[in-house]
Amino acid sequence: MVTATRTTSDASTFAHLLDTVLALSETSPICLCLIQNGYIDLSSFLGIYENELESLEYIPLPIDQEVVPLSARLLMAHWQLLRYFLRWIRQLSHENGGTLSNYELISLATDDFSLHRRSSSVHMPEPPSAPTQRSTSTLTTTTNSSCSAVADFKRGVKQDKTHYPVLKDDRYWDNFYRTFVVTAVSHNVDNVLDPAFC
Description:
The protein has about 200 residues and is mainly alpha-helical. The protein has one domain. Helices cover about 50% and strands about 0% of the residues.
């Protein structure tokens, strides 16, 4: 379950990225491949290099109990999905001016990623991972540009009460709560979920 605090754990953030943003089940080839190759936490997952994706192999779940499945590679669609996702996270980090916090990663949604995949920026080269030597004026301009991009994004998010889910049955509490928190974070009104907020 995703919590509404600014100290969200790596484990819940990692689960949110796989379950909610990428919409992967635990038995999907991508999840099996990540686990079998040791990408079992947030840091290792976000640290995957693009050139590693094509060579990742995994052992599929057996269909027949008597037949042991052979090692297989991810399909091109699978590693492309991971490539687009990792590029998107790096692009957001670059625009943010540094690594995204768990709190910022939790606020990401499937729709945001879908829009990114359909955009032309997917086919652009990856943004630089480390800043190069620049003059102070260039650095200031870049920082102001990043701040305005974040401000533009926040202004572009329409705060509408119809975006919030309605809990009709207690057995759907986990999904309701997760969606509710993510919506509140994207609307920038998540402070009301903090009991210490006055």
